[in-house]
Amino acid sequence: MKVLLRNPRREVEVEGPVRVHALLARLDLSREGHLVICNGTLVPADELLQDGDEVEVRPVISGGAT
Amino acid sequence: MKCRVCRGPAVIDLPRHNANFCAEHFVKLCRDQVAKAIADHAMLTPGERVLVAVSGGKDSLAVWDLLLELGYDAEGLYLGLGIGSYSEASAVAARSFASARGLVLHERSLREDYGYDVPTAAAVTRRVPCSSCGLSKRHLFDAAAADGGFAVVATGHNLDDEAAVLLGNSLRWDLDYLARQLPALPARDGFPRKVKPLVRLTERETAAYCLVRGIDYLVEECPMAAGNKHLGYKAALNGIEERSPGTKAAFYLGFLDRMAPLLADHAAIDRTGLGRCRTCGAPTTGEVCAFCRLLEQTAGHEPVPVELVRRGGRR
Question: Of A58, B224, B276, B284, which one is least surrounded by beta carbons within 10 A?
Answer without folding.
Answer: B276
